[in-house]
Specification:
205 residues; alpha/beta; Rossmann fold; 2 domains; 5-stranded parallel sheet; two-stranded antiparallel ribbon; globular
Length: 205
C-alpha cells in the first residue's frame, strides 16, 4: 500500500493465533500510515496464511531470512513488527509493538493444547510435549511445527537495538486485541500506533 517513493515500512505480523486476532488491526494501522504519505508492505511468513511453503519445514531463521529478503525486494527503509513478529524482524530501524518472547508465545500454545487434551480425557504436560516436539515436531493450536522450529523458538527474545524503539500497549490505551477470545479491531488504538510511527518518521525527514 502507499507511495513508491519516500519511507516504506515492512510490517512483520504477529505470529500464529495472535496474527489472526491482530490482522484487521494491522491492516487498519497500515491504512492510516498510507494516509500519512508512507508506504507499507505486509508479507506472509513462509508457511502461514496464503504462503504455499510447508510450515513444518520452517524455523525462526528461515522466517527472519524471508523478512530480510522481503525488505530488500520492496526497498523498505523501516520495520514495524508486531508481538511475536519482533522475534523474526530484519535488521532495519523501526519499531517493536508490544514485543513477545518466544517462551511466552510457546507457553500459550502449549497451554491451549493441554486444555484441549484434558477435555478429551488425555493428560499431557508442557515438558512432555516439548520433549516430543523437539524430536518429532508437534501440532500446537492447529499449527504443525517442525522439530527444528521447536528446538530454538522458546529461547528467542526480541532484540531491540539502538535503531529500534519499543511501543508498549500502555501507549495505545486499553487492553491488547490479542487478549480477546475472537479477532477484533480498535480504531483508537490503530490511530495511536500509526501516529507514533508517522510522527517519528516525519520528524526524521
Amino acid at each position: 500500500m502507499g507511495p513508491d517513493t519516500g519511507s516504506r515500512l515492512l510490517i512483520v505480523p504477529a505470529l500464529f493465533d495472535e496474527g489472526h486476532k491482530l490482522r484487521r488491526f494491522t491492516l487498519e494501522v497500515m491504512r492510516r500510515l498510507v494516509g500519512a504519505g508512507l508506504g507499507c508492505v505486509l508479507p506472509d511468513l513462509p508457511g502461514l496464511n496464503e504462503s504455499l511453503a510447508p510450515l513444518e519445514a520452517q524455523t525462526p531463521e528461515t522466517w527472519r531470512g524471508a523478512m530480510a529478503a522481503a525488505a530488500a525486494h520492496f526497498t523498505c527503509s523501516h520495520v514495524l513488527a508486531m508481538r511475536g513478529g519482533c522475534l523474526v524482524a530484519p535488521d532495519l530501524p523501526g519499531w517493536f509493538y508490544a514485543p513477545l518472547a518466544g517462551a511466552n508465545q510457546q507457553r500459550q500454545m502449549l497451554r491451549a493444547r493441554i486444555i484441549t487434551a484434558r477435555e478429551a480425557g488425555r493428560e499431557e504436560t508442557q515438558d512432555g510435549l516439548l520433549a516430543q516436539g523437539r524430536e518429532q515436531g508437534l501440532e500446537l493450536a492447529g499449527y504443525r511445527l517442525g522439530a527444528a522450529f521447536l528446538q530454538s523458538f522458546g529461547a528467542l527474545v526480541p532484540e531491540a537495538g539502538n535503531q529500534i524503539s519499543t511501543i508498549s500497549q500502555d501507549q495505545l490505551g486499553g487492553a491488547g486485541l490479542w487478549m480477546r477470545a475472537e479477532a477484533g479491531e480498535n480504531a483508537a488504538q490503530a490511530d495511536a500506533l500509526a501516529a507514533i510511527v508517522a510522527v517519528a518518521l516525519k520528524g526524521q525527514g
